[in-house]
Amino acid sequence: MPANLPPQFFALLAKLKEAESPEEKISILEEMLAICPKHKGTEKVQRDLKSKIAKLKKQKPQKTKRETLYSIPKQGAGQIIIVGPANSGKSSLLNALSNAKAKLASYPFTTSTPQPAMMKYENILIQLVDTPPLTKESPGWLKALMSAADGLIVVFDLAKNEITEEIKNLKEILNNWGLENKKILFLGNKIDLPKAKENFQKLKDKICPISAQNKMGIEELKKEIFNLLEIARIYSKKPGKEIDFEHPFIVKKGTKLIKLAKEISEDLVSSFKYAKLFRKNSSKVQIVGKDYLLKDQDIIEIHT
Ligand SMILES: Nc1nc2c(ncn2[C@@H]2O[C@H](COP(=O)(O)OP(=O)(O)OP(=O)(O)O)[C@@H](O)[C@H]2O)c(=O)[nH]1
Ligand SMILES: [Mg+2]
Prior knowledge:
Elements: H1 7-18, H2 22-35, H3 43-59, H4 66-69, E1 79-83, H5 90-97, E2 115-121, E3 124-130, H6 140-148, E4 151-157, H7 163-176, E5 184-189, H8 194-202, E6 208-209, H9 218-229, E7 231-236, E8 249-252, H10 257-264, H11 267-271, E9 274-279, E10 285-288, E11 298-303
Parallel strand pairs: 1-3, 1-4, 4-5, 5-6, 7-11
Antiparallel strand pairs: 2-3, 7-8, 9-10, 9-11
Helix pairs in contact: 1-2, 2-3
Bound molecules: guanosine-5'-triphosphate (GTP) and magnesium ion.
């Protein structure tokens, strides 16, 4: 029985060859296993992947340093770190956006280690990481995690009396840590509370109101998170074949078509002649070249 592996599987295979650390290899292999279709034809592939993961896990040296212990390997289409003051609702937000069941409580430092979870946005998964409260005294691993991330969500408790002060303090930490130019979404949580509504009216800072508890603004937020990443989902089509809308390639918005061709297969770079560009729900077909800049939801059929 043919395995019918999706194109993203082969892109990950290429990435695996370049991966150096066991952690990176495990993360790629786990992603390959996750997207591998589950049927009889792929049983051997699945077995091989599982055995490679098990072998690498055994090989992994015992880590003692917190810095490395708390690094989270990236998964999915992008990694977003959720940060903010104590009790602002970071864990509640993680739970509202994903299937995670992070512990919530009205006392501070309920979360003491980073907790990753996957958020589904349409046909892709985006990794979110919940973290302990962010203060000037936060440990180095949190700064490292934030620096390496593709984007940040900063959550404030809008119902707090000192909200303006808290926003100012947090922005200061981001500046001091050299993170002010990262892609950041500022959120004001607990808008379900009257006090929060009152504070929000007076705020001058650009902040998006939500309620993690009542799920207000959560669906819109998922789209905002996707937009923050500035990525594009590209579907590769083979002449005469069905389009696989479930396994898009993920590239940075505006990536040149030839770069994607290289990711699909090195051979395509030299043999590339032109590509047909289709759009969902449109019968229009455009002919594009190597330098075409990819947009979200482009359907590409490469001709050699
Ligand atoms: N009214 C209201 N309460 C909320 C909302 N989101 C969270 N809470 C409450 O606020 C408290 C803190 O929520 P958490 O999600 O644990 O906050 P956190 O930021 O993860 O807290 P730490 O991990 O300690 O930093 C809990 O009692 C939650 O039930 C919200 O949207 N509205
Ligand atoms: Mg928490």
